[in-house]
Amino acid sequence: MFYEPSKGHGLQHDPSKAIVAPRPIGWISTLNGAGEVNLAPYSFFNAVSTRPFIVWFSSEGEKDSATFAQETGEFVANLVSRDLAEKMNRTSVDAPRGVNEFAYADLAMAPSRLVAPPRVAAAPAALECRVTEVIRPKALDGTTASAVVVAGEVVGVYIDDAFLQDGMFDITKAGNVSRLGYMDYASVSEIFSMRRPRWEAD
Predict the structure, then answer these.
(1) What is the pLDDT along the chain (202 residues), one digit of tens a residue?
(2) Where are the beta strands (DSSP E) in the chain?
(3) Which of 22, 31, 163, 169 registers the highest number of CB atoms within 10 A of its CB?
(4) Is 182 left (phi over 0), alpha (psi -120 to 50) or beta?
């Protein structure tokens, strides 16, 4: 089949998110100026660069994570491990503004080192970020999309020592969780390695 997104796909469910998958989940914790805490998962999340280390998350509209991050200029991207998947899902609830999702999902908070928002204490890793820019993408016709993209430079990295093996982060032990589209998720349980080839002229 072939379809033009602007004209619809004709399927029972939108395949777009299943095609662009798996997508790592940024479990974003933020604070607003009044000190209210927010925690929410975003599957439109990824790293942009390593030097400097920049990550971004995209919010469909001005949700608490995006507005709090813009207000205070800071956020934490927490890693979702397999054993935290159900609690992560609980924090995706469409709760009224001001609700503390840490408490709602029975998650302990831990203080960050360099930013004010707390991290998820049980997360195997967390990225402390300071906002570098906020982007509102445009469609081909020039109209502004509903998405709010928040980019931040990672100023601090927390790693639970239990997930370090021979100087490397053990992805399979953490079981990094990703979104696959629809209501489906995946957890890393198997990896394979390939070295980047070197160019050799014939």
Answers:
(1) 998 998 999 998 989 989 999 999 999 999 999 999 999 999 999 999 999 999 999 999 889 999 999 999 999 999 999 999 999 999 999 988 888 999 999 999 999 999 999 999 999 999 999 999 999 999 999 999 999 999 999 999 999 999 999 999 999 999 999 999 899 999 999 999 999 999 988 7
(2) 23-24, 26-31, 37-42, 45-50, 53-60, 74-78, 109-110, 119-120, 125-135, 147-159, 164-165, 168-169, 177-181, 184-187
(3) 31
(4) left
